[in-house]
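Notebook B, p. 112. Complex prediction, attempt 2.
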Amino acid sequence: MAIFIIIWGFVGAIALGAQGEGLSLAAWRQLFVAGIAQGAMYGLLALGYSMVYGVLGFINFAHGEVFMVGAIVGFFAANTLFDAGLWESNFILSILIVLIVAMATSTFTAVLIEKIAYRPLRNAPRLIPLITSIGISFFIQNAVQLLVGPAVKTYPAPPTWLSNPIEFLGFRVPGTTVLVVVLALTSMTGLWLFVERSATGRAMRAVAEDKEIAALMGINVDRVIITTFAVGGAMAGVAGLMWAIMFRGVSFITGFLPGIKAFTAAVLGGIGNMAGAMFGGILLGLFEGLGPNVVLRGLAWQIPTALAIVLLVVGVVSILGGRALNRSGIVVLGAATVLMGLVGVSGFTIVIPGLSQLKDVVAFTALVLVLIFKPGGLFGERLSKEDRA
Amino acid sequence: MTHTLEQIDAPASSTPSPVDWSKVQKWGVLGGLTMSFIAAIGMVTALDQRLIISPWLSLGFLTLLWTPVVFGIIAATEDAETPGVAGDRDVISGFVTGPLSGLFFAFFIVIIDAFDLTDIFRNLGPKLVELLTFGRGVGVAAALWIISCGLLGLLGGTLKIAPRKARSMIGAAAMSVVGVALLEIIVTDITQGLRIEFVADWIYALNGGLTPASALVIAAGSALFGLRSDGSTLAERRLERMNLDPEVRFRKNVVAAVLTILAVIFLPMILGGLTNDLLANVGLFILMGLGLNIVVGSAGLLDLGYVAFFAVGAYTTAVLTSPLSPFFTPGWTLNFFSLEGAAVITIVLIMAVIAGVLVGTPVIRLRGDYLAIVTLGFGEIIRILFLSDWLAPYFGGAQGITNVPSAGLGPVEIRGTSSQAMFYLIAAFVGAAIYVAWRLQASRTGRAWTALREDEDAAEAMGINTTAAKLTAFVIGAIFAGFAGMIFAVKVGSIFPSSFKLLLSIIILVIVIVGGMGSIPGVIIGAVVLIGILGGPTQQGLLQEFGQFKLLIYGALLVVMMLKRPEGLWPNVRRQRELHQDEMSQDAWLMEESSQDKDGDS
């Protein structure tokens, strides 16, 4: 059913575009670039989920809040710098200072959470740390709201030379987007080198593989786990700044949705798989940016009757063929094609007003579909044996 | 729990261990941090108007003053790292921890007095400074705080080594003074219902809070009551209850049940509207809690999208009965003695089952933590769809559906605004739900759920159809929530998507966890304590002033319960045995020992 809607929407969007009723090419490109930038942010956040799941085997629901706290404290730093005049006179330096502040805050928060809440639960059943992290997430959200107030805090605007668009390979890309992508690439590379090359990184991978044997090999497991949280927190801090550059507004609820989406990205890329997390993030960002327009807008396209009849035939044949070959994938695709043919014959279309409202529905649908159909991720999980389901 | 037992039975004469200074330091600083945090989130200023003992002690200050006592006790308590026997060192630990917290807090006061931090922390303004310095100089205030925290820490340390009876007396006195002061609304309400207003007039001062005289009387009375109890801990009492003869236990349970039913029937008549409304809300949450308890507690499936079923129930009722909805048929109301009413109930039931199957089928094969996130996703999807312009012609979008007619019993109308009628309606549903949940627990399905929660592979090997069992749990949970939604719709008369946020799912989860997963009385106690005192997402509790802090407290409760008492306040016996197998056997052993000691003394 879901597959059918996605195919219909996808084809429909292209057909509508060809008829000149859909979005213009320039608009598509813009959505694409924005999707990449947001996806890079999700990717950085997803790393935190992925690493913690890889090492400890539970979902750190409070990771979104770690991100939010970084962005909020970063706001106060940015605001101070703006009042001091440094924001305008030397933007690069001030953004670096804000970055360091955000990273430090997020790292500190993540480590604190681990020490207070997760360490005593090291050997508890899997759901107990998950429930704890939901509590932590709730607590941090409301503590921030009470401490600094519920109002949305708006970062000072970046200088005009940065927010002006830059021509790049035929894409008109805002400078802020470039900055976001550069930030993401730099921190990703740094993290990659850290995990793959340094001794601590090796220890981290060992602990993810098997805690007990790692401990026998002389690795200080507690310290490695703290490092994992610290690194994940630092990445969340970077993501917090990226959010601030892209959207400027932060408040106590900023962390919830990006957190959920980043978790989806982590699962999509394969839990415990770092490169996968980044790719998963970008895929999800693209899907979220293009999804409502591609899939839902395309549902307004009426399938031509001739095509519908062809689809019906192809669908029935592939169902029968799939049955014969015992390949359920082909059967599902065939069923989707038949449905599409039926819709085409009846001339049924769905026009959805207020598309942007459904952006989060698309994101949550992605979450549900990924977790149900591809819980192992596109690029494979890297988990210790006991954590694999 | 075990600490107190060890400490009681340990001979006091053996060599006391030295004070663990690093621990004292740690808890002292943590105490100071906690106090500063409580002041910074604005609790002290917001709750200053609510008096406990007029005019000396306000709830605002009470939120600060408990800290040195409790942290003093913690610092004085032996743990695995600092073994040893109780003695003077406990008092010293408490006595040092307190002033350390006080010192830290005094430093905090000096800072907020010297710098204006309101740009960042909106509560750290002059109002807070004035409150914390009692309108005197900062120096005097700092000294006062250090001294009073020292005394409170000393109290904590002394309490720790005090004999059990003394502790239960002091505890009972403190609890009842605070409790009676906090229950001011209810006590006034009841006394008005009983036409004995003069009692309330005597207990409470004009501007709220107990008068010093009544506080003294209450403290003395409850201390006497504390003297009567033998000071046994909850665990011991439960152990005792478990060891009772089954027949005696059954008889006790029957008596308790009859008393409860009588109370439910007659209480609303003497209670005022406010209390009835409060109890009706509590009942609604008990209903949902019982449903989630089956899903989470019995079958072990962490459902974070539980609110979706509640929303389905509420929207189905509203769509069928509101004259403003496109599906409205004249004459359809939730009248329990009419054909249309029966049809509404049946359709709500069917929709809940469909929703349960639709959400349940794809998710039950997932591993536990993924299931939680997927259900959360489903919950949000349903809420956003109800909110969207796309489906607004059917569900009203952000405007929701209004004018839902009230329920009825034949010609009698059960108006949503009449809190007494609502109470009876909800109580009837809760009663039925309790019966169903209780019967299910002992049924074949219930035992299958328990087996499933303990070990899925083993359960499957024993021939349990795990998929079917899980789906049944999901669907039954959905039905409970669907009916709760139906009652909610007729109670408030208009429903909006904003009533069905994730928040609600989490709060119901907190109820189940605080009460005790898998335990029916636990859920009831959890709902009474949490919703009754703190309130639900939109419903007010007894402590209305706590409104803005309740979500923070819910979050903290979830963490503290998971860390310290994962089995809940009133645990499911089987579950408690699993979680605390060692401790329980230890307790039993200690009790045997102590009873032998007593025999030896006499």
